[in-house]
Amino acid sequence: MTIKSIILVMVSLQTYTANGQIICERQMSVEWRTQPKHHIMKWTLMNNICSNFYTDCWNININIERNILEQQALNVPQICPLQLQLGDSLFISSEASFQSHGMNLGNVSMEEFIRCPPKDFLQDQLIFGCRLRGMHQVDPRWLEVGTHYFAEVQTKGPLLCNLGLRLNVTVKQQFCQQSSNAPFCSRHGRCLSHVWEEAYNCHCSQQYSGRFCQEFDACASKPCQNNASCIDTREGTIGNSYECACPSQFAGKNCSEIIGQCQPHACLNGNCSNVTPNTFLCECDKDFTGKKFILFSML
Ligand SMILES: *[C@@H]1O[C@H](CO)[C@@H](O)[C@H](O)[C@H]1NC(C)=O
Ligand SMILES: *[C@@H]1O[C@H](CO)[C@@H](O)[C@H](O)[C@H]1NC(C)=O
Ligand SMILES: *[C@@H]1O[C@H](CO)[C@@H](O)[C@H](O)[C@H]1NC(C)=O
Ligand SMILES: *[C@@H]1O[C@H](CO)[C@@H](O)[C@H](O)[C@H]1NC(C)=O
Ligand SMILES: *[C@@H]1O[C@H](CO)[C@@H](O)[C@H](O)[C@H]1NC(C)=O
């Protein structure tokens, strides 16, 4: 097969994929794995090439403000974008039909990714200085935290890049551990990253808050009554440490006491008991427990 015929085959494949539905499968939210993973990326035009930035490559319908470069990026055929955890390894496996010619892969800027690299491509941008045949591991130095753009660079012309041989690789780190051996999210949450986020962060379970879910949120059980606002007062996972800011006619730790003293019919459907010289409580009758205090007109 000559290079020309290979390219012709590729052009027809590309048309097919552009008109077909190559939609990259994508989870919107991913949980941090405790073990690094090996990813194998097939460097091929046969499949896994998406064309429309949002709908095909990310499989989302999204209305966000786009800058000019992003608008240009919208219709860049590319290998489905990849997101890795820091520490994962990436192997690139070239398609059999490319192997006799070899493939060159370069680390390029976003602009070069969108427009495909120019001919005066710098040698120190080459990820595989030799021509890529079979499967090769990408050196970790190309996979630091951040977004990286890899593109096919051909000395004979950038055509294959234009057809889609370019890859957006985002490498994310996690901020879910208070120290290197600490449990993830203090065991009170999940370490997650949304597809557009640059890192993994804790998403705390109920009652916990803080960057590492290290804080017990005493307010989560809604202890303050009568529309009082709750303030979590102590840091840490222990204790029911909260304060209720009571509206003017209420008092007590939970704002459950009414300011004043018992008067006849003070509690409409319950018994009245004085708590302090200044406050009383209504103990509601059985059928009126839904609303704890049946208010009466003050004074
Ligand atoms: C890859 O290319 C980008 C954009 O030109 C550059 O900022 C980055 O330093 C390069 N990576 C390495 C490891 O050289
Ligand atoms: C590359 O992927 C990241 C998400 O990981 C995205 O934010 C960025 O816009 C993509 N860049 C291009 C040019 O497609
Ligand atoms: C305040 O509410 C908490 C939680 O509902 C409860 O355990 C506590 O006994 C209440 N304290 C007072 C003084 O009512
Ligand atoms: C509770 O507080 C909110 C905001 O402070 C206020 O809009 C609302 O009317 C209050 N509800 C009652 C029943 O007092
Ligand atoms: C109210 O007081 C009466 C008489 O003392 C008693 O029988 C009743 O159980 C009390 N109700 C409540 C809700 O405490």
TrEMBL record:
EGF-like domain boundaries: 172-214, 215-256, 258-294
Record InterPro entries: EGF (IPR000742), EGF-like_Ca-bd_dom (IPR001881), Notch_Cell-Fate_Det (IPR051022)
Keywords: Disulfide bond, EGF-like domain, Repeat, Signal
Signal sequence coordinates: 1-20
Keyword Disulfide bond: yes
GO cellular component, one term: protein-containing complex
UniProt key word Disulfide bond: yes
GO BP terms: establishment or maintenance of epithelial cell apical/basal polarity; heterophilic cell-cell adhesion via plasma membrane cell adhesion molecules
Name assigned to this protein: EGF-like domain-containing protein
GO terms of molecular function: calcium ion binding
